[in-house]
Amino acid sequence: MKIHAAAVGVLLVLLATNASAASAAKREATLLKSRVQFSVPADWIEFRRNDSPAGGVIAYRIPNGPPTNPSANAVVTVRDAQDETLAGYANSWIESSRLVHGAVVLSRFEKGNPATDVFVLYRIEQKGVPYLAADRYSGRGTLLLQVRIAWPVFPGNTEEWRRSVLSSSNHLLSDVILEGAVIGPLGILREAEAVDSAATIGSVEAVRAEK
């Protein structure tokens, strides 16, 4: 796999910042009797879990300093669906975000024809606070996966926290094991190089990972 050179440099910085902590402080999670497997940082707080043969969801709150600061969140959702395409599944979630949170899509990447993987970066608003959100959708067999991570564009975010969230997000958006195989990277989050980029808000942008 080949990743754009600029993204590689930023990723190395992001990963190195938290390498020792991340390697020692991960928590494993599974859904649908281990048909979905992933890991998250140990300090992410699980606040919702449902798991059944038809599908499941695990949601996390990502602490952001003082309790008064808006937190980031991450959600892993999976459905065992027989008659739904991945593109249709992704589009239904994106439309729901547009209607509920005023989502504006900044970047969208797809792989496969028909699509087997979709990555979307967009901005939303929750309780008056602007957020960035990244979605990764993958379809393997009858399973449809969505990984969503959203974090606030907030003056109180420290550089260390922002970089930690980006590093952990890139890991989760790429390394979920679905039906026994890692989904792999499609979109890579990085600190923006140009603040006037159409796909930039809060100094974060997405680039496509290429094979």
Q: Layout of SSEs?
A:
Elements: E1 2-3, H1 5-17, H2 19-24, E2 26-31, E3 36-41, E4 45-52, E5 55-62, E6 72-80, H3 86-101, E7 104-111, E8 117-126, E9 129-140, E10 143-152, H4 159-175, E11 177-178, E12 181-182, E13 187-191, E14 204-210
Antiparallel strand pairs: 1-14, 2-3, 3-11, 4-5, 5-6, 6-10, 7-8, 8-9, 9-10, 11-12, 13-14
Task: Characterise the protein shown here.
The protein is of the alpha+beta class and 211 residues long. Helix content is 25%, strand content 45%. The protein has helices spanning 5-17, 19-24, 86-101, 159-175, and strands spanning 2-3, 26-31, 36-41, 45-52, 55-62, 72-80, 104-111, 117-126, 129-140, 143-152, 177-178, 181-182, 187-191, 204-210. The strands form three sheets. A seven-stranded antiparallel beta sheet has the order 4-5-6-10-9-8-7, with helices on both faces. Strands 2-3-11-12 form a four-stranded antiparallel beta sheet. The longest helix has 17 residues, at 159-175. The termini are close together. 35% of the residues are buried. Mean pLDDT is 84; it is low at 1-24 and 194-199.
